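Sequence only, no structure available. Ideas?
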Amino acid sequence: MIHVKNRKRPGRQTMPSHGVGLRNVRKRMEYLFAEDFTMSEMQDEQSYELTLRVEIFKN
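Reply:
I predicted one. Tokens follow.
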């Protein structure tokens, strides 16, 4: 599992976010792991969070 949390900059954003980075991460994970991963994103007023889980061994 990989968990990343970044703080948002205080004040107004000068450039709008379009989520391109998150889409790219999801596409790469789908390419590498097909259905054997989960990706969850969360954000609040102060931070962004991303959690990736990869199933390495199947039962």
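The first strand starts at residue 2 and ends at 7.
Hope that gets you unstuck.
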